[in-house]
Amino acid sequence: MKIDSGTTAWMLAATALVLLMTPGLAFFYGGMTRAKSVLNMMMMSFGAIVTVTITWMLFGHSLAFTDNPSAALNNFVGGFDALGLQSLVETATKDDGTGMPSLVFSAFQMTFAIITVALISGAIADRAKFGAWMLFTVIWAAVVYFPVAHWVWGTGWLNTMGIEDFAGGTVVHINAGAAALALALVLGKRQGWRKEPMRPHNLTLVLLGAALLWFGWFGFNAGSELAVDGTAGLAFLNTQVATAVAVGAWLVVEKLRDGHATSLGAASGAVAGLVAITPACGFVDPWAAMVIGLLAGAICAYAVGLKYKLGYDDSLDVVGVHLVGGVVGAVSLGFLAAYPFLDQQSEGLFYGGGFGQLGLQVLGPVAVGGYSFILTWIIGKIIDKTMGFRISTEDEVTGIDITSHAETGYDLGTVHASGVSSPNGPVTAPATKKVDA
């Protein structure tokens, strides 16, 4: 089939937008940590870009998007027809009628794998060995992400049953959120958790990261249509609407509960809305996108407090925002999915559909969440028992940036006298107090 230049140009742009989301996530997460951990937190996102890119090229695309020769195994994982992506080079365009080069589709899907892995890192801020994290990203992508992508977006069992996930509520956010919970339990709580203040050290970075995520998410959601058409436009609009409403809902909850509407709440509400609309953006009317955003903003604002009640240290609220927000979005399709965006048999209850689609939209999060949690816990435990996953207590107290990377995010030292002058001669820098990062 002849390459469609318009579709190809849009998908190249969408791919770049989704890739931008991972550096955006690095800013978002980095600003939420303490100053002594910001570089390590950002390095975990950049590390995922490296490892998942290589893993995807070698065998990830093949496991996710080719058919397994065994019909039984094909329900769970793809085959090996695209190892090294060589077969995609030889087949210029996808056979789905979009006119998109096969390699462009693969690059687009690769960026989804990258950010899914990077999302998990927020749950274990301040305390994970960088080398152990890098190893984890390779193993987790291979045994969790690639098979789950095949289940839902390939020819796996959930796709065959009819689950709907437009852009990754189940594959990306529930998958990453469940993994984040498991890994937080494996590594345990940070030193001083609930006893020492662990507030975000730089809310400016948090807002910058949220803005980059919001911007990139238009490629994430609208690009998932894989075409330039009305559904892509619907996904684009719904993404904006749901996110704006979610920010408002989160801020209202904060104001009523705490007396203040915060910038951190605005950033977190935006991400919650983006997460929740992701599986539904191309399948619901704009009014329904408002409902999803409202539910996500309010529910996730309360869900982030679960860690204090249940006693797990999810450092940057990956569970409360991505797992819970992903479930809100996925299940909402059982109520709000609309014809003609979907086949009539896939309509939600509010549009005259039956309970079948609602059951599938519940089954997907349960199956993916359970699989991801169990496999992540096993992977984490194996790494922890072999090479060790957590840094020492001394290194954690000192700060993981300096002990793991020999760098600091900020120069908090004294002013050098040699670099300062005055009409009366050299100025001696005053002694400075030690800064508690």
Task: Please give a quick description of this structure.
With 437 residues, the chain is mainly alpha-helical. It is built from 17 helices and two strands. It has one domain: Orthogonal Bundle (Ammonium transporter fold).
Notes on the structure:
The chain is mainly alpha-helical. It has one domain (5-393): Ammonium transporter AmtB like domains (Ammonium transporter fold), CATH 1.10.3430. Helices cover 65% and strands 1% of the residues. The protein contains 17 helices and 2 strands. It has a two-stranded antiparallel ribbon. A hairpin with a 2-residue loop joins strand 1 (421-422) and strand 2. Helix 9 packs antiparallel against helix 10. The protein is globular and about 60 Å long. The termini are far apart. The model is unreliable at 415-437 (pLDDT under 50). Residues 415-437 are annotated as: Disordered. One of its GO terms (cellular component) is plasma membrane. Homotrimer.
